[in-house]
Structure formats: C-alpha cells, structure tokens
Amino acid sequence: MLLNRRDFLKATGAGFAYLSLSQMGFDMRPVKAYAAGLKMDGAKEVISVCPFCSVSCHIIAHVKDGKLVNTEGDPDYPINQGALCAKGAAMLSLTRNPHRAMKPMYRAPYSDKWEEKSWDWMLDRIADRVKESRDKDFIEKNEKGQRVNRLEHVFALGTSHMDNEECSLVHQAMRALGVVHMDHQARI
Ligand code: SF4
To answer: Mind listing the pLDDT tens digit of every residue in the chain (188 residues)?
Structure first.
C-alpha cells in the first residue's frame, strides 16, 4: 500500500500515541470524544494556495456546510512542508474576522467619529481627492528640463490583506498616475 506523508504521519504518529498511552493505563475515551467534536470533523479538505507572496505556500482549507472552518499548512507540499508564516497562518481571518469592516467607513477631517458611507459616495470622494492632488502637484519636468511625470505628494501603502494580484493592480494604477512613493506591508 502506498502512503503519502500525511497518511504516514496519521497512521504512525496517532497509532503510536494511542498504543503507548492506552498501554500505560490512560483512559483514551475523553480524547476520542474530543476529537469527534473538532471543527474539522466531517469537513471537506481543499488544497489552496496562499495569495500573499510569491512563495505560494500550499494551504489545506477545511470546508463544512459551505463555510470555511479551518486553514493550515499542507505537509505534503515540498516548498512549505506544512509551515506557514504569520500572514499565511492567519488566512482564516480573511473570511471570518468579526472585526473586518464590511462597509466603507469615513472619518471627516478633524472628526473623532467614523461614518458609514456607500461605495458610490466613497469611490467618488477618493477619485475627487486624487484628481485634486494630481492636478495641483503633478511634476512634468525636473529642474534640468527633463520630462519626469511624477506625483510626489501622494503615498500609496498596501494593507497586509492585499494579495499578489491586488498589489500588482494598485502598483500599475499608481505608476499610471505618476506616484513614485509606495510600499506594502509584505515588504516591511
Ligand atoms: S505569505 Fe507566508 S504563508 Fe503565504 S505564501 Fe508567503 S511565505 Fe507562504
């Protein structure tokens, strides 16, 4: 019989632990009852890829009743061998973090309150502010008369939850505007 790495670990690790502990007189019934109640019990395993950097670690996603209930590193994938960095390990929070803002929130200048806004309002506001800054501060030529097309008064900072493709799109959009100052949490 051919066993992959995960099956081997399950068969040997779990088997040895069960044999040795029960042989030493421990009652394993509470442990088995606990395992039966785990959130992954009965869940479907789906292999996915962490989207946060080009290492592309493999992740096992557990899906139950159409919902993601757990994510963990894939021990069978040779690149990450079951390990994940802090960002990959927090993957579940992408979909299930109760603190995640689900609607655009706006805080007016000098205000101490956040207000809920519609996407239309927020996107118009962002577009107006970006255009205003660009119209005011765009630099076409440097002091030597060379064309530079730079916008130096806007800084773009990506969040830790932007994936590779989102970072690529934002980067291209910012370069098209002439923005030269940008950074992203993955590099910090
Ligand atoms: S962000 Fe971390 S877990 Fe995700 S692919 Fe990169 S190294 Fe792997």
So the answer is: 555 656 654 554 444 444 445 556 666 666 655 655 577 788 999 999 998 888 999 999 999 999 999 999 999 999 999 999 988 998 888 888 888 888 999 999 999 999 999 999 999 999 999 999 999 999 999 999 999 999 999 999 888 788 888 888 999 999 999 999 998 876 55
- What separation in Å is there between the alpha carbon of 63 and the centre of ligand 1? 21
CATH number of the domain to which 67 belongs: 3.30.200.210
β-bridge pairing 67-73 and 147-158? unpaired
Q: Cα(47)–Cα(40) distance, rounded to whole angstroms?
A: 14
Residue ID of nearest Cα to ligand 1 atom 8 = 57
Q: Are residues 126 and 52 in the same domain?
A: no
Which pTM value belongs to this model? 0.65
Choose the residue to mutate in 57, 60, 74, 160 for probing ligand 1, maximizing ligand atoms within 8 Å of C-beta.
57
Domain count, the chain: 3
Closest CA to ligand 1's atom 2: 85
Which structural domain range is residue 42 located in? Answer: 38-100
- Is 23 in contact with 42 (CB distance < 8 Å)? no
CB 105 within 8 A of CB 116: yes
User: Ligand 1 site: residues with CB under 6 angstroms?
Assistant: 50, 52-53, 55-57, 80, 84-85, 87-88
